[in-house]
Amino acid sequence: MTKATDGVVGAISSILVLALIIFIYVLRKERREARDFYRKNGGLTLKDAANIKIFKRGELKAILKSHNLIGKGSFGEVYKGDIDGALVAIKKPIGDNVHENKQFPNEVIIQSQVMHRNIVRLRGCCLEVDTPMLVYEFISNGSLEDILHKDKSKLLNLDVRLSILQESAHGLAYMHSQTHATILHGDVKPANILLDEKLTPKISDFGISRLIAKDKEQTAQEEGHSF
To answer: What range(s) does the Protein kinase domain occupy (predicted)?
Structure first.
């Protein structure tokens, strides 16, 4: 090998070593930040809680892409995705519309214990980010408000409307008197009642959403889901 060739090989080797060092540094930094966020967001309290899955940031990364975005507003963004064969909606607060609340872990535990056919189920959360992301079951038919005022192709007859009213009342009664801690919704309206494929109503946007996003948030609804 000539001296020129040796010089090129040496330069390439130096660049590769430098790139490896930078990669290791960034990886360690990200892992350290993830651990710090996990602790800050109550991971030590939530790790042993029943009925709640703590997702790692990497598990949700593929879903948090622009083509999966189904809702956006002052509260943040909502993404639709698939986790282990189940459709989910991930709520990701953004910008200045977030604030820290030390009761967050306890509220997660309370809502994870809410199991009623007329209430949107919280499946888990991701704590390895600055502001926790929440993972809910995905409700396919959007909000009652959308169907009543926007989507004229889905007409609801009187019997269906009465059924939605009755089942929504069952969900609220459960929250008020049959949970470990009384849960007051505080903002019941058609936009916060979602409908599944059988038009079964599911109450949404209560509890934890009040801890993560500012009160009186303006939510955005897209076909398929809203919070």
So the answer is: 64-227
Query: Which residues are known catalytic residues?
Result: 187
- Look up tokens 């200045």; give the residue: 96
Domain span holding position 198: 44-212
Beta-strand relationship, 53-55 and 122-126? parallel
The answer as to whether 219 is a domain residue is no
The C-alpha atoms of residue 97 and residue 28 are separated, in whole angstroms, by 29
On whether residue 220 sits in a domain, the answer given is no
Confidence category of residue 53, pLDDT binned at 50, 70, 90: very high
Give the dihedral sign, CA 99/102/107/108: positive
How far is residue 68's CA from residue 66's CA, in Å, rounded to a whole number?
A: 5
Together in a domain, 53 and 79: yes
CA–CA distance from 108 to each of 56, 99, 124 (Å)?
16, 16, 9
Find the radius of gyration of the CA atoms of the chain: 22
Half-sphere exposure of 194 (CA within 13 A, CB side): 26
Condensed to tens digits (0 to 9), the pLDDT of residues 26-51 reads 878 888 888 999 999 999 889 888 88
